[in-house]
Design goal:
This protein starts with a helix and ends in a 6-residue tail after the last helix. It is an alpha+beta fold. The protein has eight helices and five strands; from the N terminus they run ααβαβαβββαααα. Helices cover 43% and strands 13% of the residues.
Length: 254
């Protein structure tokens, strides 16, 4: 069997594991479940997270995904790009956090040479409107790996899910309803909502990317190459989210 054949079999096996993981009761994200049901998950597999070649390949594939997915986004679309990796194997959360941010930095350094910011989003990880940018499109990133403390992030291999911020915005009020349902699932199947969201909510989304609960004085190990954002799509978001939670009984955190 040739090396490409082996790689294809490995990728197919990982994709099967991903599909089964999304369907477990411990996995809480209803958006990913909807994407699986609609066959709108784009999956690519790479050698090692934090490796320059893998980051370059991941960037190339994500840029192609952005060009394809942009016109397809709507208030009914549930689409995500999931990158999985052969390495690392099982590592602790601090090690994984360092690797995922190194990987994202390598991708960002390539992207920022050509592309700028998405409307209303920032590349500054200290801000509430931070998004990881590729091709001028901002993403909320969800890291998963075998050593994650939260069952909903504990996948069999290292992975990164890239979720379009524009898609979240297009959902409008449905976003808050879905968020409430996700957090109720977390409480039922994982014992509690994610403490990272309980503590920080929308204030600093970069804290949520790796899945590790960060310290109060945590500094994101990521440097933006973009100019500061001139717009902010999160204006009023905290107040709106708090008001919606009070009206509908949605718990804070995820």
């Amino acid at each position: 069997m040739t090396e490409p054949d082996t790689a294809l079999r490995s990728t197919a096996a990982i994709r099967g594991q991903l599909d089964r993981f999304i369907q477990t009761r411990e996995f809480s994200c209803l958006g990913a479940r909807a994407a699986l049901k609609r066959d709108t998950i784009t999956h690519r597999h790479y050698r090692r997270m934090g490796d320059e070649r893998s980051a370059r390949e991941n960037y190339r594939d994500l840029l192609e995904y952005v060009e394809t997915v942009r016109p397809l986004l709507s208030d009914r679309s549930f689409r995500t790009f999931v990158a999985t990796f052969d390495e690392p194997g099982t590592v602790d959360e601090l090690t994984y956090e360092g690797l995922i941010w190194r990987h994202l930095q390598l991708m960002h350094d390539l992207d920022s040479r050509t592309f700028g910011l998405d409307k209303g989003a920032s590349s500054d990880p200290r801000t509430p409107n931070f998004g990881f940018h590729t091709g001028g499109h901002a993403f909320f990133v969800v890291g998963m790996h075998p050593g994650a403390s939260r069952a909903s992030r504990r996948f069999s291999t290292a992975a990164i899910a890239f979720n379009s911020l524009a898609q979240f915005m297009l959902l409008g009020e449905k976003f808050y309803s879905m968020q409430g349902a996700i957090r109720r699932r977390e409480t039922t199947h994982n014992g509690s909502v994610n403490p990272s969201f309980t503590e920080y909510e929308y204030e600093q989304p970069a804290r949520h990317f790796s899945g590790r609960f960060t310290e109060p004085d945590w500094t994101c190990p990521y440097t933006s190459r973009h100019a500061p954002a001139t717009e902010d799509f999160t204006e009023g978001l905290l107040q709106h989210g708090a008001r919606h939670g009070a009206q509908h009984g949605a718990p804070r955190g995820r």
